[in-house]
Amino acid sequence: MSKVLFDIHVVDGYITTISNRDSAKIVASSFYKGIYKKFSIDSALYAKSMDYYYNHPDVMEKIYTEVEKNFVKVRAKNDKEAESDSAREQATKLARDNPSMVLRFLSAEYLQPKRTEPPMDSNPFRMALTN
Q: Do residues 50 and 5 lie in contact, with contact meaning Cβ atoms separated by under 8 Å?
């Protein structure tokens, strides 16, 4: 039930962002039907389950503890993704605004010839000894 309630609350949060009340009702109805289908329930079973939990607040509290944990986990994941996206956007903007800096970086890092190590069996002093 905690997964159902999590999805319901996500939809409820999204619906509050829709300014047109009629559109919000249509969108909400569609999303709720999707949630019911996802969890193989219907609105009647959902309402019956909620009545039970309203009459058993100790059980409802445990369920909402799980819902809250899920929200915290999802928020942490979203925050991490947002930080990553923000860093990527900042790097892109920096590169776009400073193309000469990018070229200097690329030429310094990638366009320089790579050193190659001599073979392990070669003796750098051999020529000095034979001459």
A: no
DSSP state of 131: -
Dist. CA 109–CA 103, nearest whole Å: 10
- 24 Cβ contact partners less than 8 Å away, ≥ 6 residues apart: 15, 16, 18
pLDDT tens readout for residues 28-56: 999 999 999 999 999 999 999 999 999 99
Give the tens place of pLDDT for each residue, 77-121: 877 777 776 766 776 776 676 666 555 555 555 555 555 665 555
Spell out the domain ranges in the chain.
Answer: 2-98
Continuous H helices in the chain:
2-15, 21-38, 43-55, 57-97, 99-109, 126-130
Q: How far, in Å, CA of 40 to CA of 4, rounded?
A: 10
Give the number of C-alpha atoms closer than 13 A to the C-alpha of residue 49, restricted to the C-beta side. Answer: 13
